[in-house]
Every structure is written in structure tokens, then in C-alpha cells.
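Notes continue from the previous slide.

Worked example: a multi-chain complex. Inputs as given:
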Amino acid sequence: MSHASNDIVLALVIIAGLSFDFTNGFHDTANAMATSIATRALSPRIAVVLSAALNLVGAFLSLSVAATIASGLVETGLVTLTVVFAGLAGAIVWNLLTWLFGIPSSSSHALIGGVIGSMLAAAGSHAVKWQGLVSKVIIPAALSPFVAALVATVGTVLVYRIASSMREAGRSHGFRIGQVGSASLVSLAHGSNDAQKTMGIITLALIANGTLGAGATTPIWVIVICALTIAAGTYAGGWRVIRTLGKGLVEIEPPQGLAAESSSAAVILVSTHFGYSLSTTQVATGSILGCGLGKKGADVRWNVAGRMATAWLTTLPAAGAMGAISYFIANGIGGTGGIIVDLIILIAFSSGIYWRSRASTVNARNVNSEWRGTVAPPRRAEVEA
Amino acid sequence: MNDWINFTAVWQIVVVGLLAGAGLPAIFAIGIRALGTPGKGHVTAAEDELVGGSPAGIALAVACFAIVGAAIGYGIYIVVASGHK
């Protein structure tokens, strides 16, 4: 490829990276804010504004070498711009599909799956560091929801035991205030973890293109645009996912919300401290499940939990398959044209998903409507009936 | 330590996670309950009133909230510090 066409490809990769970052933001608003919205500790609008602001701050707080995702999981020497683009396309497709169904699946897994899928398609199995994949991604993913659920269950039991003698109205008021703090902490941790993943991918693309030398650190303009994009995505609010996490899994009272959010914040921060980058989504879901288990009479909807677990198991391979397909399309056509065809398919697909979502819009007004088995909120006539 | 799974880290994450993730909400709950303890001559006011008026209760509540606040400050410090390795 000529130098000029390479620059066009690089620009397309950066656009795809930022698109993924945006989906990452709105897919994950729920992790921090679903419980606060469900218990009305925060109004839906205020919640997304607060979460967006803290994601922005969080993205600037953490400036470590952002290429860890890539360097620990694939042979970076074999990465090309086409591989990165196809991987991002696969991740975006999976994030949008799961959002449509309101399933809180992991954005990090979608990204990792997409990049590994396109890498496998491009260079074969030796290009993937399988041990890194198992020890850094799969085992933490398998354990973290259980740890989070355990912590949240214990927290919920303790909190209800301590506060059982209080009048319910006063108790709810107090715990709602506490929830604002704990939800803020989860948002901050999310910004510092997840914005960094896109920064890493864009840095990797810049290195693959020769714009940056190998081992270069993330340039400041990449940090700024990634931080702004994830904040914008968070503000857009993935209401469908918020609804499933806040209303679908278990009915949540303020003390449970505080316990769930505290568990999420603690597990994410402690793991970060030990060098594990967990899926915020899986931790948050585990915590919400735990706060249902810890309260007597709270009724956990296991069919919703089962659907989520299925989505978690399929995220890596499904995003991988989509990354591989994108790579085959782009590479089959070849050159800049191949990537542009990929991009057109991606845009058409995203528009289709958006159009499908209009059939059952979930937004700030109906996010807390009664749960009737699906993410689609009951229509007004059904509510009155 | 194993190449595939680091049991020491998992064990530590569980213990510290429990102390912070379950312990702090419990301390917060003690604070909320202490704050609501009715004081002498207290007239029952609004249903969702937070402050009961007992001086000892308020003092205990302040202590609890201070512990929780300090722990959150430390949590933010971990985010910042781990980002600048």
C-alpha cells in the first residue's frame, strides 16, 4: 500500500476505535448507575451526567502503558491495520447486538474476542498467546462474578441486620445518599479501566502503521479523544442494559444498591491493584445478583441471570467469529477498498440495529417501568390495563 | 504460584474485597442507624428524617462516615497510583 492510502486506513481504524469506545461507554453506563437509577437515588438524567463526568475524569487518571491488551494476548509484530480494523468491527457488531437485547455483556471481551478472531484469520493460531488469554482473561472472567456476588451477599446481609430496626423511609433516604458515593466510585474505576483499552488499540494501530516507534507511550491527543468519546457514550446511556440490570435481575432497595455498588467498586479496585483488569460488567452483574441473594424474600430472576451467563460464554467466540469474518471480507477484497467495504457493511448493520431498537424504545422516562419478562417496557395501555 | 492461575492473588482479592466491599457498607449502615437514634425530647418529625438528635449517635455516625470517606479516598489513590506505574 502507498503511504497515502495507509494514512486513510489509519484514519478509518481510528474512527472504528472511537466508535467502539462510544459503544463501550453506553453499554456500560449500567454497571455503575443501574442500581442507583432503579432505587431512585439518582434521576436517570442526573445519573448519566454524573457517570459521564466521572468516566472522563477516570480516563485521565490512569495513564499506564495502554497496549497491555494487545501485547499480552497477540504477537504484536504480526498485527496489521486491517487486523485491528476487522477486530474493532467485530467488537462493535457484538456490542450493538447485545445492547439490542439489553444484555450486559462485557465490552472488554468483545474487543479482545474481535481482535483475536481477526488475528487468527490473518495469521493463524501461533499469532495468539493462548496462555495469556487463559490466565489474563478467561480465568479472571470465570471467577470475578462469583467473588463479586459473594461480597455483595455478605454486604447485604450485614447492612440489613444492622439497619433492620430503622424505619423504612429514613433508612432508604440514608442509603440513597450513600449510593451516590458508591456509584460514583464505580464510574471512576470504569473510566480508568475501559477508556484505556481503546487508547491501547489506537496506540497499537499507530505503531503498526509506523507513525509511532515500537514501545511508544500513548500520545496525549489519543488520551483526550478516547476520554471524551467514552464520556459521550456514557452520557448517551445504554438504557436497555440499565433496565435489565436495574429492574430485570432483581428488585433492588437502596440498602441493596449500596451493597452491590460497594462490592463492584471494591472488587474492581482491589483487582486493579493486583494487576488484573476485570470486566466491569461481569463484576457489576455478580454484585447485583449477590444483593438479591443476601436479602430475605428478594426474588432473583434466574432466567434473566441464565441469559446473561450464556451471553458471557458466547461473547469471546462470537465477537471472534465476527472479527474473523470482517477480516476475510476486508482481506478478500484487499487494500483500502476492502476496509471501506467493511466499514459500509458495519454502518448498514448498525443502522439496522438502531432501526430495530426503535420498535421498543427504552429511555430515561421508561427505564424503571415494571419488568414484564423482557427489556421492552410495557406500553402505556398495558400498564393501565 | 501457578502459571495459569495465581491462587495467592485470588485469595487476597476475596479477603480484601470482603473487608472493603462488605465491611464498608456495614460501617455506613452503623453510621446511618446511629445518626437516626432519637435524642432527648425529640419530637417525631418527618418519616424519612435522617438525624435523630442523640449527641452520642451523631458522634458515632461522624466517626463511621469518616472511616468510609477515608477508605474511598484510598480507593481513588489506588486508581491513580496503578495508572502511573
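Summary box: The interface with chain A takes residues 3-6, 9-10, 12-14, 16-18, 20-26, 28-30, 32-33, 35-36, 47-50, 68, 72, 75-76, 78-80, 82-85 of chain B (CB under 8 Å). The mean pLDDT of chain B is 81.
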